[in-house]
Amino acid sequence: MINLNDIISKNSWAYWEDYVHNVSRHDVETSLNITGKHSIQDFANLISASGEQFINNLAAAANQKTIQRFGRTVQLYAPMYLSNECQNICTYCGFSFDHKIQRKTLTDSEIIQEAEFLKLQGFDHILLVTGEANKTVGTNYIANAVKLLQPYFSQIAIEIQPLDTDEYKLLVASGVHTVLVYQETYNRNTYKEYHTKGKKSNYQYRLETADRLGEAGIHKIGLGALLGLDDWRVDSIHCALHFLYLRQKFPCVKFSISFPRLRPAVGVKHDENKFMTDVQLAQLIATYRLLDINLELSISTREAKKFRDNIFKLGITSMSAGSKTNPGGYTLLEQELEQFEIDDDRSVQEIYDMLTIAGYEPVWKDWDQIFHIN
Amino acid sequence: MHPLIIADHTFHNRLILGSGKYASAELMIASVLASGSEMVTIALKRIVTQQDAITSDHLIAPLVRAGVKLLPNTSGARTAKEAVLAAELARQALQTNWIKLEIHPDQNYLLPDPIETLIAAEELVKKGFVVLPYVHADPPLCKRLENCGCAVVMPLASPIGSNKGMQMRDMIAIIIEQSNIPVIIDAGIGKPSHATEAMEIGASAVLVNTAVATANDPIEMGKAFDMAVKAGFIANSAGPAISYSNAQASSPLTEFLM
Asked: Which of helix, strand or coil describes residue B164?
């Protein structure tokens, strides 16, 4: 059995940092011409600085693979923020415990009000998001929210604090289809600097979350690194390693990768040198598609209109639309207290029309709650 | 063309299409109509499952209006239990007791689980379903499914969506030879020539999705598959010439000895 700590070890960051910054043009060409399965070395070669000049070739290959597997379709989903309460101090996040913002956790009737709004927009897949406040927004709160939302949505995903296996089993049984949990950065040293207080400061517990999810029988696990916290290439290689490890260990689980890039949030300063360019983000997305044809690749409204209007052709298969990133943002409160700033603020209908005009079918429903009845 | 009879239904076309991966529902319908296909499979997880699905769902309603037979499938099910529940929901929502049984817990190759499939098939037959199971090209398994009352067997030609064609040709030939029910080749048919090959060796029908839906022109590709299936069927009926590894002279060289 492969051990996660052997793959993502204390030494692996330095190893891959050295590797990815010494990739030659020839290495990229070799990886581009592979007809079989791509290795992690191929992944590193293709996302390297040398790989950037091959973006057209990468895009064409990714486009072909995406169409073969997913056809001309893009799934639509909406995030619903249930709470911005948080016990963690994360230096990059608008919800961080040390920020003096108004905290809000939705009540049952408020959850239903938000759900009815999103249902009217056409959504059938929903992503429930919270901060990390175990005492007030714990497993029971989430299970209750899922129960309230089941009559409205076919697929319910959550992005909450990491939990224990038994807690995940309870949530899976209650109807949770997908859990997203991002490692933020796979660099253990940098992780400590960004996560200074709270349960989230435990790197190892967070890293092993996906294993606990697999053991709990979850249908889909979403992974990602918060691009911009550290070297995005090395973080992405580690995220890909994490995925390959999990794919081997849990062949019955689907996987999804998200690409959050740091954006300005309330009172937070960022090191712009670590921001990746649009070309680099496209390069990364296309490379993930070549790594695995079945991967769901997801893009949020953090990204700009022009980017979102084109990126699904390079591998993206799931998009949020018309998003609000504060609790009660759809029907209760003005957009404030946001976790991150939205760039693409077009309506759901505008996104739907954009996809249709581009010759893609927007897919609202690709799951049914019947598969949760055990 | 000799009709294909499955349970109580007679088909005059031996191409079955999938409904996924199209750029729009309109394009899907147009491709189905152009192909002449009389039956389309649709994933339960993609449709609204209220009782009015037949008139309200954007994928289902136009197929029903076009007179195409619906074949709901259980894609998404990881166990026999989930598949049976999905079949019952499909029967209620689409008002058909036909079900394409798909249980593929593996997410990398979507390979069907033979044990769960057999368990589900047995239960669904008992519950009165017309069961069309998607399986490996596994001759003993296909025999077990036939014996438990399945209407057809649907062995894969190669992994679903791979477009790799008749990789399992030899096993499929054994299944066809031994089967007393229709054998429909499902999954992996990537080109019309693959469909012809399947029909030439005696398949009863083929099911195609990716190859049509993701073609640059799905309507024209639907037509091409229609012709390919017909060509293969006629060739099989006509009795293909035997192939030899050595040369066979048209005018035997030993004639003078007779």
From this structure: coil
Residues of B with catalytic function: 100
B46–A360 CB contact, under 8 Å: no
How far is Cα A131 from Cα A197, in angstroms, rounded to an integer? 14
Sign of CA dihedral B164, B165, B167, B172: positive
pTM for this one? Answer: 0.88
Q: Which residue has the tokens 């759900």?
A: A115
Residue from the list B47, B76, B106 with its beta carbon closest to the beta carbon of A251: B106
At B31-40, the pLDDT tens digits run 999 999 999 9
The token pair at B127 is: 């519950």
pLDDT tens for A301-349 read: 989 999 999 999 999 999 999 998 889 999 987 656 566 667 888 999 9
**Token duo for residue A174:** 């209650």
Work out whether strand A125-129 and strand A73-81 pair parallel, antiparallel, or are unpaired.
parallel
Q: 3-class DSSP state for residue B205?
A: strand
* Bridge partners of residue A127, in order along the sequence: A79, A157
Residue of B nearest to A247 (CA): B108
Coil/strand/helix, residue A338: coil
Beta bridge partners of A180: A222
- pLDDT value of residue B242: 72
Two tokens at A201? Answer: 């400061």
